[in-house]
Each structure stands twice: as C-alpha cells, then as structure tokens.
Design goal:
The structure is a homodimer of 423-residue chains. Chain A has seven helices and 28 strands. Chain A has helices at 19-28, 174-182, 221-231, 246-259, 271-282, 319-337, 393-397, and strands at 37-41, 54-55, 65-66, 70-73, 87-94, 109-113, 125-128, 132-136, 139-142, 152-153, 164-166, 187-191, 195-201, 205-206, 217-218, 235-242, 262-266, 287-292, 296-297, 303-307, 310-315, 351-355, 359-360, 366-376, 379-384, 400-404, 410-411, 416-421.
C-alpha cells in the first residue's frame, strides 16, 4: 500500500470512497503549512488573513470619554437624588469636543459634556440630560443618582495598550479593520493570497470566446473555476486549454505545480483523459494520488492528489460536477492552506426549508440535490431543480443545495432539509 | 405633515419609530430607480447585476453528446437484452473527441463513444461499458436495454438557442458566468456599481493614520464603512473628515450628494452635530428627513433622509451603532438601488443556535445582540458578547447577531435563536 488508500477492488475497478473520508485524507496532509506574508494598508486588507498577533500599540479609547450628552459630575454628589429631593450642582465649565477640558470638576460642581467628550479631572460619572432639570444658566437639579463610572467609557476599556487586539490567523472583517484603525495601526502583516493554477484539457474544448467549430464545446469550467477561486480569496493563473497528449499535458501540470500553491485541471471525464490525469500526478512523485473517485452524485470521478506538497485536483469535465467537487474539496483545501486558524469561519450558514417533493437516493452514496428556495405563505420551500447533472442551466436555476447522506435512500416531500445557499 | 413621518411628540422630543417601519419608509421611496449600465467581460462580471435579459445566441450543447463512456447504438437493438439473452452488436466505428463522427450507426452496429463525444448519425442511445461484454475486437454483447435518448444530452437541451438564459436584474454568480461562457457570450451589460460617498465629522475625530493628539479619537467609522460598502458591491468616495460647522459640513454633504448615489455621514451622535446633520439633509430640498431615531439598541440615533432621489444616512458616531445601522438600513438600500430584481438573494442565511445565558430587552425596542457562536459537544451555542455597545472590540469578538423583537422583554438561556453570521 502507498500513502493513498487502495481504491481498486480485486477486478481492478474503482472502489469509491466516501466524501468525508476523501476530504479528511486530503486535509490531513495539508496541515502545518503557512503561506508567505506581505504588508498591506487597511484599505487593501479586507478578508485577508493576519500573519502575526497584533497587540494594541495604544489605549482605546485614549482617554475617559462620555457616552451620553449630559453633565460630568462627582458621582458622590448624586447619591440619594430623587425627583422630590434633587441634588443641586453648579455648572462651572463646558467640555468641547476633541479638547482636554481645562480645570477640574469639584464637589458640588459639574461641566456640560457632549457624547464623546473627554471627561474632566475630578469627575467620575456623567448624568444624562434626561435625569436633570435646569434651575438657571448656572445650576441644575439632578433627579437620579449616578454610580461612579456611569456613562463613561474608560481609557483602554475597549482595548488596553499592549493587549492582544487580533490573533494571528484571523480573517479581517470590516469590524476588525475598524479596531485596527482605532488603534492607529495603518499596515498589517497578512499571508499572501494563494495562487491556483487552472488547466483545461480535452480535444473537444475550445475557448469560450472562439467561434464554434462543429463537434467542439466551449470551455465552461475555466470561467466558473476562476470565479469560484476568487470567491475563496485566492488568485488564478489560467494555463488555458492544453492538448490531452502526454507531452502537452504532463508539461502543463508540471509547470502549474511549480508555479502555484494548488492546481486544478478539468475535462478528464472520459476514461482516457482521466488516466492521463492520474499519471500526471503520479509522475511528479509521492504522495501522488490520494483519491480516485468518491461515492458522490454528481461529482463521482474527481481525482485528488498531492505533487510534493501541492494539491492537484482533477475535476470532472461536466461543469456541474466540477462545481460540486469545488465546493466539497477545493474550497476546504484553499481554506486550510490560507493560514486561517481561528474559528470565526467554522460555521457554514444554512437555511432550513421544507422539501417540496420526494427525492430518491442510492444508499452508500452522498447525493447533492440542488434546489430553488422560494418563500410561500411565509414558509421557506425547497424545490429540487430537475434536469441532467451535466446541464449548467440547472445550476443557474438553483440558489442552494442540500445533502442526502450515505445511509439514506431518499427523503419524503415535507421533510425539513438544511440548504447551503449558493452565493 | 410632510412626506416624512412625524417623529416628535407634543414636547418636541423624538418619538422613535420601529426599525421595520423606518426601513419600509426608506425602501418604498427607492423603487423604480435603475443605475446606468456598462459592458464587462465575463472575468470582470462576477457579482455584477445584469442590465438586460440575455437570450441564448446558440444551442447548448451545440450537438447531441454522450454523457457516458460506452457504445452509441440504435436503442431498438437493445430492447429485451438481458444477461442470459444479450443483444449482439458489431463495432463499426470510433467517435473521437471534438470531431463530428463520419458515417452512421445502422441497425445491428455501434460506435465506441467517450463521455462528451458527439453522438453519430443513426444512434439514439448510448449503452454504458458496464452494460456490455466484449465478444471480440469487433463485437459486443449488450446485457441491458437502453431507451431512446439514454445517456445522451441533446443539442439545446441545456439551453435552446433564442431562449432566455438569464433575466435582467440578476446577480452573476460563478455558475451564471459559466452558462454565458457555454453560450459563447464574452461580454455582458451590467448596471454600473453604485457610488457611496462617506463623510466623517466631529471636532474630536482625526484620521486613523495621524499621530494621536490628546482629546482626539481616531476615525474608525470611515474604515469600517469602506469595507462594508465594498462588501455590498458598491464603490466608495471618501470625503475625509469635515469640520462640524455649518459652512464646512453643508458644503461637503451637498457635494457628496451631487457626486454619488448615496451618502453616509457619521460622527453626529452629540445633539449639536445631529441637528447639523438633519439640517444638511433638509436644506437640499424634499423629501428631506424620513426618519430621525429608531427604537433600536444599539443604533437609536440614526438619521435617514432623501436629498432629491439620493438617500443620505446619518450614522451614529459609536462605531458599533454605526455598523448595526449599516446592516439594517444602508445594506438593504444599496441592494434596492443596485438593480437586483430577482429572487436569488432574498434569503439571509441564518444559523440556529442555543442561547447560553438570559438576555433582558426593553419592550417596544428591537435589540440586536452580538454573539460568539461556538460548537460544544456537536451543538451550536450562542454566547452573547458582553461589553459596551461603543466598544468596537465587542464586534471583533462576535461572529454573528440575533434580534429580540419589540414585543419581547428578553430571552431565557436555552432558547433557540436565529443567528445572522457576520461575514
């Protein structure tokens, strides 16, 4: 036995392995790899992955600030204050936005303060306007007590200087960039984007922009793969359409493996081209082929291998099967190699919906059923999209999919299904 | 009464309106507007919105193709075939990939055909290899009947020439671009991206890249808004930090309204700046202010107006409140103005999870509770993120939120909540 699983039975036929097993076989070999890093401005860093822990270089907020419009007071002056027994406090100053207030609040006095104003010396609470009654220009009644710290956000309360703002391996969302901006951080070290090489093969394939020749078919997979890869935050290196001869194809795969973090080829659904794909991976050395064929519909003939440390995927030629295999195998591999190590991304959003017709499934096979989700009488309804798995129009009519696992022989109309949305 | 709702009570105080009412008030005024269009290549068109119906200029597939490796036959020759009573058929040709096969299949004969091969004249079914037994080089036994059309995808079966491939107002996903590629379409008319102007104001605000000055605070909202807007597929025009004087602020808002499809300003949480924001919208003419203040926590002081046909949002100065208002009001407005008219995008993915502590909420107010979703013993658990609503670190610790509606006074630990993920 090699590092790969034996997937041929005694007659030399493919023994298909379950999707989950194929995926874990792949992902287990991708651990502990980290891409190179680069430095980006915040405006460029959305959705990129931090390459190092980021500690706060300063306190946020940088000083005590009011969270309300009101009066900065000594909290002790307000204790016991009620509507009938208010506390009387003199107004001795005004806090202006963006300026450290001069002087100090002393017992029996207060400063007017706007939301966001810096809390003056001597004050440890802000009383909301709503809890005061003006007496005259220089005096207010406070009608409710305010505890020490009321309506104040303390210096460093959001993030204290020196503490961890964001860990390494974290995907930068809008709020994360905001936090970094708040700390005066202008550049961030991130892992560089993965580069994915794509190779199309098959003598019947022509570029989608070329005039149609009888017998040929336009290259769909390169266009969908490019879009799917960019959705995953990786860059695309398109090697175009390569002849399915050993000389051309082996050379293209070798070059793509040398120049990228991952390689996809597609078009190899016919037995001959599939064999060529397997050979192309094997000849680049161990571990070689990890998976040839999974118990999945659509998507059965996927090939997964490792040329050294570079994952190489042979996607089925059928565009729909290729997209399904992308979602189930390529996307998790890109995710795994991207450098993400934190958990914000571990939940795939799903939409519970009611299945609107019976669906059969072969036991022992994972079935991926594309659906059109629609809302009817306030209920989310999932209508399976009918049509051949090779027809790409079935994908454009679907807005999500659900899975029927290997142990099930199908689902009845009315069942609740968990739909993964196609974004 | 003006076009806006009266939101002041008899004492001239803000009467807050519910979130859903505020949103529908805004969206009802945005209908029937369409942005200009531009022409893009498929590689540039991901996530853009089609500006016209797209009809298929050719058939897909362009000819009858096999979906299996096997033998192209006359289906009638296979009728009644079984293991014990096979049909004997002579192999008279080979279909090569990408080439229209010469000659024709006649009764009693077949051609070898690979997956994707063009079905030869005279054949109306493909028999899988698995349902045949070789007799010799020139003859096979067929052991299972194949109906007419078996394992063939017909010319135009995916999309027929002249039929609607994609409607106008459709967001282009990877599969949609694949469909267009399959039809030989290289360019697509899409609505141009919306342009959103952002203005930061407040004398306490400095650019996040500037050295910190005592009393000042760094501009977080411009950085988060930029990222949130780009997530929505729109472009950002950043007008920087504008002084909160009438002269400067009115001029900046007027310019931003003239130059963009939508304008956001932020920083106006203090009463003075809020009034300035309302005046800036009102002076640009009707309809003016639609909403000043909503019954929402956090996010109450949002201002929503229309300067002519341009939505103008006054977002709260607190970064968290600003982000919440972005999600609840700005995002639906961008969506509405983007030109999307089809339903693929109507389902917000949600994740059902178990609430891990009691949460109080004031009746009559929509509460947005940020949570950290974690998986514990296979269960999805939602831990409310504690901390001040003004603290942006609470957003970075959250990976989603749920809502407690106006009729509820809170939820008990153990309740099931529907979490909207923060992507």
């Amino acid at each position: 036995m090699t590092a790969s699983e034996s997937t041929r039975d005694m007659l030399g036929r493919d023994r298909l392995i379950p999707v989950a097993r194929a995926r874990s076989l792949l992902l287990s070999k991708l651990q502990d790899r980290k891409p190179e890093t680069e430095k980006l401005s915040l405006a460029e860093a959305l959705d990129r992955i931090t390459a190092a822990d980021i500690n706060a270089p300063e306190d946020l907020p940088p000083c005590d600030r009011s969270t309300m419009d009101g009066f900065a007071v000594a909290a002790a002056d307000t204790f016991g204050a009620t509507q009938s027994m208010p506390a009387y406090v003199s107004i001795t100053g005004d806090v202006l936005m963006g300026i450290i207030p001069a002087g100090a609040v002393t017992r029996g006095t207060c400063y007017r303060i706007p939301t966001g104003g810096v809390v003056p010396q001597g004050s440890d609470a802000v009383v909301m306007f709503e809890h005061t009654v003006p007496v005259d220009e220089k005096m207010i009644e406070i009608v409710k007590p305010a505890g020490s710290g009321s309506n104040i956000i303390r210096k460093g309360e959001d993030i204290a200087r020196g503490s961890l703002a964001l860990p390494s391996g974290w995907r930068l969302r809008p709020s994360d960039l905001g936090l970094l901006a708040g700390l005066g951080i202008t550049e961030v070290d991130v892992f560089r984007q993965l580069s994915v090489g794509i190779i199309s093969t098959g003598d019947e394939i022509i570029d989608h922009a070329q005039p149609l020749v009888p017998g040929k078919i336009r290259n769909i997979n390169a266009v969908t793969a490019r879009a799917l890869i960019s959705r995953c935050g990786a860059k695309v290196h398109d090697y175009g359409i390569v002849k399915d001869t050993e000389a051309s194809f082996f050379k293209a795969v070798e070059q793509a493996v040398a120049e990228n973090d991952m390689v996809l080829f597609s078009g190899g659904s016919s037995v001959g081209v599939r064999d060529l794909g397997e050979q192309a991976i094997e000849r680049l050395g161990p571990p070689g082929i990890l998976v040839h064929g999974v118990s999945l519909k659509p998507g059965k003939p996927v090939i997964i291998g490792l040329a050294g440390s570079t994952p190489v995927f042979g996607l089925p030629g059928h565009p729909v099967s290729a997209m399904v295999c992308f979602d189930l195998f390529v996307k998790p591999a890109i995710h795994s190699l991207s450098g993400i190590t934190h958990k914000t991304d571990t939940f795939e959003p799903v939409i519970s919906a009611r299945l609107m017709r019976n669906i059969n499934s072969a036991a022992g096979r994972l079935d991926l059923v594309r659906v059109q989700l629609v809302r009817e009488n306030g209920e989310r309804c999932a209508y399976p999209v009918l049509g051949r798995s090779g027809a790409i129009s079935t994908m454009t009519r679907a807005n999500g999919y659900f899975l029927i696992d290997e142990n099930s022989q199908g689902l009845l109309s009315g069942s609740t299904v968990e739909v993964y949305p196609y974004s």
